[in-house]
Amino acid sequence: MQSVPKSEETRSLIVGTAMRLFTENGYDRTTMRAIAAEAGVSVGNAYYYFSSKEQLIQGFYDQMQRDHQERCIDLLSGEPAFEERLKRVLFAWLDVAQPYHRFGTQFFVNAADPESPLSPFSEDSTAARVASIGLMDEVIGGSDVKIDPELREELPELLWLFQMGVVLFWVHDRSAAQKRTRMLIGRTVPLIAKLVGLSRLRVLRPVSREVTSLIKDLARPEPA
């Protein structure tokens, strides 16, 4: 087994410690000094890896994305049904994120600010965003679903945007073990799968292509 570099161990330790303290004490009341002390590293060492608490949150995003992807490897293996693959990926995200639900509202307040580097649409979040969209591409590519070619190109990002909606619902879900979020996934994913399957029908192609055209226009950068 390949050993984990010491630097990566330290980085993961600081991120894990920070998330625990954020959950226990709140984001605003937790200082970098407190994180360093609890992790057993010097303040300078903590700042070496993360220049701010915002960067720590970004490190958490990245780590959670890696954990999610690793969990999905076995879940997707040998499963050809698009609907089931998408459900498994979304349920796996809930499982990975569940320990942080109590901190979720505070955690995502910053992420909801479009000017914040913690926004999932920000440049700082590019790595996590690209990895998440790539996972959705894998959900589609490893399935036996037949899709209109133009929709296929845009579908991974559309599914990621759907996931962001699920995350927002999860943040505000106060049901036991977030059962309502699981119900949301269980009942909306079959609808998405039906719509995706119908996209290849000739009669619905104009609608499908209008949707993809809209997504492309919205994603296009504003002229300087």
From TrEMBL:
It holds the Pfam family TetR_C_23. Residues 31-50 bind DNA. Residues 8-68 form the HTH tetR-type domain. Keywords: DNA-binding. It comes from the Bacteria. InterPro entries: DNA-bd_HTH_TetR-type_CS, Homeodomain-like_sf, HTH-type_TetR-like_transc_reg, HTH_TetR, Tet_transcr_reg_TetR-rel_C_sf, TetR_C_23. PROSITE patterns: HTH_TETR_1, HTH_TETR_2. Gene3D superfamilies: Tetracycline Repressor, domain 2. GO terms for molecular function: DNA-binding transcription factor activity; transcription cis-regulatory region binding. This is DNA-binding transcriptional regulator, AcrR family.
